[in-house]
Structure formats: C-alpha cells, structure tokens
Amino acid sequence: MPTPTKGPRLGGGPAHERLILANLAQALFEHDRITTTQAKAKRLRPLAERLVTFAKRGDLHARRRVLAVISDKSVVHRLFTEIAPDVADRQGGYTRITKIAPRKGDNAPMAVIELVREPLSAKQATVKEAEGATKRAAKKSAAKKSTAKKAAPAAEATEGAAEATEAPYGEGSHAPLADGSAPEGFPIKGNEDSKKYHTEESPWFEQTEAEVWFATQEAAEAAGFEAPGSMPDAEEAAEAETAEESDKDA
C-alpha cells in the first residue's frame, strides 16, 4: 500500500479514511461539538469547513455535494437551515479545536472540535470591516499607480507627436495651419516633393503650395531644402522693378 503524502492515514485504507471523516462530520453537525483525537480533529476541520461553505451557498447543487458525504438527510437539513444562517457573516473559521487531557489507557492526545456559531461581536465586525477597507484601498491605489504608469508613456507619445506635427523639420519649421495659411513668424514656403523653399521675392512663391513653413532661410537649408536655381537675388529684383518703373514713365 502506498504511503500517504499528508501524514499517516486514518484507518486501514483511503475508503475507510473517507468513511471515518464523513461519520465525524455528521456527528459534528448533529451535536455541534465532539471529542476525538487531535489527529482526527485536524483532519476533520478542512472537510467540515468545506461542507459549511457549500451549505452557505444554499442551492440544489451544493446540497447534493453535501449529501455525497453525509448520508443522513436530517443532519444535512439542519446544516443548511440552522448552522449556515448562523455563520453567514463569517468568512471562514467555522470550527474551533481545543486540546484537552490525554485519553486514559493509551494516553492518546485528545481534543474537542466544535462549531463556532456565536455571532460576530461589534469589535470583530469593525476589525473585519477595517481590514476589508484597507485591502480595497490598497487595490485601488495599486490600480491607480498601474494606470498612471500606462498613461505616462501614452501622454509622452502624444506630446511628442504634437511637437513633431507642429515642427516637422525641427526648430525653425512649422506645419501649415488648418486653413493652409502661414503661421506667424514663418514667411518662407517649403515644398517637400522638390525640396525647394521660396521666399516672397521668388517668382514661384504664389504658385507653390506650402507643405511646410520656415522662419528663416538658414532653417530651411538646415532641414535639407534648397533655393530654386534661377531664383533672382534681392538686388536683381530691385533693379528689375526700377527698370519697369522707368519704362512706364517713358
């Protein structure tokens, strides 16, 4: 027979152990307290508390689960109708084990296992409520911190995207406004396809559709834009205007 993993087995085999624990649980729910050895009391406690948890649910499936362990229907009825309502406010700890004097004869360590059916005191209820509030506050704080951590990169990305939209070619450049007009302080047009920039003196200034605006020619050149090859400089433009005015006067 294989050795059990959780201490010595009660009885001669697994089936015998299950029957022993079932009988002990039935006696506990029938009399509220029983005297047995400490080993049996410790093995009975998790089974009894599990059955009480089923009884607190109160549905048909839970009743059938309990009947699979306890065969006496009257004891099951008492468990569901009397014991479960008394421990409805408790979140576990439905049993109590008290050690007593050893048994006469074989000197076996004995204990009394009983159901804890008394209602929670006001102090215990307050402590439990405070513990629950502390846990809820800790969960909310952790959730807020995680949300803030997730939101921070998103905000930084949004700010970076906004800055990139406003200054697509770095400092000295600006994207066109919503109506396509020039932002204040950015008089030079830039065409991204041709990589050319045009000042107001350029003959192609009016025909060029501005895809980016620059504050100075240096900023445009730093962004990789070039002036048009046949663009007249300021002196030539002034001489041309003077010649046209003299022809008109003549």
TrEMBL record:
Biased composition (Basic and acidic residues): 190-201
GO cellular component: ribosome
Keyword NADP: no
Region annotation (Disordered) ranges: 123-250
Compositionally biased spans, kind Acidic residues: 233-250
Biased composition (Low complexity): 149-168, 215-227
Any one Pfam family match given in the protein's UniProt record, by short name: Ribosomal_L17
Keywords: Ribonucleoprotein, Ribosomal protein
Regions of compositional bias (Basic residues) in chain numbering: 136-148
Known partners and oligomeric status: Part of the 50S ribosomal subunit. Contacts protein L32.
Family: Belongs to the bacterial ribosomal protein bL17 family.
The name this protein goes by in its record: Large ribosomal subunit protein bL17
